[in-house]
Amino acid sequence: MYLYINNLRELPNFGCRTTGNALELLLKTKNSVEQYDATESAASQGAWSYYAKLPLKDGGIVPRSIYNKLFHIRHDIPNIFRIVQKIDKVFGGTHDYITNDPIQSIENYTRFLKKHPQLSSLKKKMTQSEGVVINGEGTLIFGNPTQRDALYLLFVLALAKELDKPVYLLNAMITPCPYSGEDPELLSKAAPLLKYCKVIAVRESKSYEYVAQLSGKSNLRIIPDALFSWGPKIRRLVKFVRDEPDLCIAHPDNSKRDNLVFDEPYLCISGSSSAWRYNNKIRTQFVKLIKSLNQIGKKIIVVETCDGDRFLEQVAKECNVTFLPKTTPIMAAMGVLAGSQLYITGRYHPAIMASANGVPCIFLTSNSHKTSSIQQLLGYTTIKEHPICPTDEEILDILGDVKKALDNRNAIHQSILENFEKRREQSNSYLEILDTTS
Asked: What does the DSSP assignment read for 197-226?
């Protein structure tokens, strides 16, 4: 049995809801695989406090009984809980085992095990497994500082190495942060862990080049994202949502909406993983962008693919266009994206979903090279990324590219489909990636 570490991102993200499942299905075709849900990884300290399953605490001044009670109602009193944690930290309290040093993280984890034996599940399952498989996704972005979920992944690598278990780091993008740069001290600790992996399968060439420089090529392969394997499934979903648009009714609203109509030509637009960096002005600029797109004469659907796109709900209201929330059933959401005439996005996996049906995309910048690399994989003749928060002049540039893409849609559509099928065939390499069948 192989232990499969999945859900390294805690957000309700279209990619997280699909690519890990696609990879698991490929792996299970010829191998015994048990999934370990790693939502405890959490991208940031704030998210860790929100999603943590256990009231971890070591040291500090706040009595454990009081801390435990506050932990269980923290979603009702988030500000109070954060203040209590800060006070506790001033007096030496710690509430997490993950640090910038993977070895120190293991030591902290071991210490926390004494008071929270529930944490031992990961180590026990690793010990019982033939090896550890990690769905890397877009987690390993080395920044300064580096996000907690990436540090958690390094902790998992270090723990597997300590237990002498082979590691297969798959379906991964690995890259420096284009905004903050790298932390050299962390890289010096990460490189030996990457070198220890039996196989590292990255999803595109830029990650390959980066890892090759960091830890060598001996265990390194390029295999396109596992979500490519769902191409035929995604194409079938287009007809489903056109025939039954109420499939898109989303929690918690759960009410029928008259604007859920997908049998007429429409464009889709989403945000990006770097949208949060422009919180003070991105909503205003997206309103301008959508209003400029109205001159195309097609229906516009605003698609919130992740928490980071939350600003889009207000944008859709201001522009009086259809809004598809992040809680939309994921199979229906994929059908909507794949049924569009064109998709404007800074999101990697949603772009794959649309491209499964040959939909041309206009790409926005993200938190890494992901939106340039997906263009390379899909054979775009010109690799271009528009700013996620475009100026008025840049909005005109986007509008011009939209018009060109629609004018040449048939040729672009065919090219994307042909390249998508090549990547789909290559993604089937995951069927043979593990050493043994059992």
From this structure: -SEEEESSHHHHHHHHHHH-STTEEE---G
